[in-house]
Amino acid sequence: MPSVEGAGGEESDPPVGDVDTTAPGDDDGPGPAGGDVAQGDDDPPGDADLPPAKVPVFIAQGHAGRLLMSCDDGRSWRFDVSDDDAIVCFNPTDCDHSAMSAAGLTYANGHFFASFGHGSSAGTLRHSVDGKTWTPLQTGSSQGGVYFNGELLLWMEGHFGLSNDLGVTVDSNLENVPGHFYQSRTIAAQGDVIIVSGDGVGGLVSRDAGRTWQAATLVDVRWGRNVFMQTAPDGSLVTLSAVHDVQIGEQTYKTLAFAARSTDGGLTWVGSQRLDYVTAYVEWAGMFSDGGLLFAFFDNAMWTSEDGITWGGVTVQTSLPAGRITDGAIARGPSGTYVTVTDVWNNYYDKQRAYRSDDGLHWTQLDAESFTGGHPVRHMTTGWVDAAACAE
């Protein structure tokens, strides 16, 4: 994605994961750009005149309004808060359908946004710049998904909302705005290309960051409630998704997982590979790019592809007392570190585990001093905050 200035003329952040958000021509990271200091009567700028140092962080979002942050490349998690610490999800509280259910998480140019609420009229869209203090911006039923490209913010609250002022007001000048897709959980995006889908019922695509929409053409592929999208080395777009409880002829499949490719900017998608599971429900847990390779996680394996068409998987190596690595959201930081919090039914709180990996294949479980289990975690992302936010 090209560098985009954020609202208020903010300079873009250092690179985060697969997205290059450094200012054009600036290879010096978050500090001041290199070069000669102009000579004059004034002394060169001192430390007080320099912009605050930035550090990379991971943010995780969970049910019951849970948000937590890692400031040390996934080695520990702190600032763990929720809207209600007393409830126990699914025993008996239905945390999947409430004003506090985790619906989506996004970051760009110094701004985090989290969407909460599914099946509730009191869900919220929240904003943070330090990963710790979250301010509610919009209220209303949030059906799933939020995306910020540095200028435009798109989220789902019953129907889609679009804002060009960091979510303070809603832009109503939209065309063919999508309504609620059944069981849609995510917004997948690469730059200004955005796709949304329902569970096997088709999808819509926008190529201008959410202002206008049209139906996507799907050939030999189905999009499910969670869709991941990346750009292949040749510039084509690639999606990974899975649909569930599909009847084909006399055979019922618990999961059909698809890889698909678009060469026309996201309008037409052609399926390139399908994985069939008769007895197991499986979801993709994340998708990333690094140089000439695409990476993804599915069925407790790390999958790679050079073209987005053909994928091969290698089983990850770890000891898992609480389910499999790929049963939870996975994020990749700017150093190449992968992190996850396992998300297995009824394995929350004292059974919940956090892991990190340097290569995606070998995973290390964090000890009890580094991570405390809690409400179910559904989404993860990475971004940059002022170093002072982590020092407190």
Describe the structure in your own words:
The protein has a 5-stranded mixed β-sheet, with no helix packed on it. Strands 3-2-1-28 form a 4-stranded antiparallel β-sheet. Strands 4-5-6-7 form a 4-stranded antiparallel β-sheet, with no helix packed on it. By secondary structure, it is mostly beta strands. The protein has 1 helix and 28 strands. The chain has one helix at residues 387-391, and strands at residues 54-62, 66-70, 78-81, 102-108, 111-116, 124-128, 135-139, 146-148, 153-157, 159-163, 188-190, 193-197, 203-206, 214-215, 217-219, 227-231, 237-248, 251-262, 268-277, 286-290, 293-298, 301-305, 312-315, 330-332, 338-341, 354-357, 363-365, 377-386. Helix content is 1%, strand content 39%. The longest helix has 5 residues, at 387-391.
Short descriptors:
mainly beta; 1 helix; 5-stranded mixed β-sheet; globular; 4-stranded antiparallel β-sheet; 392 residues
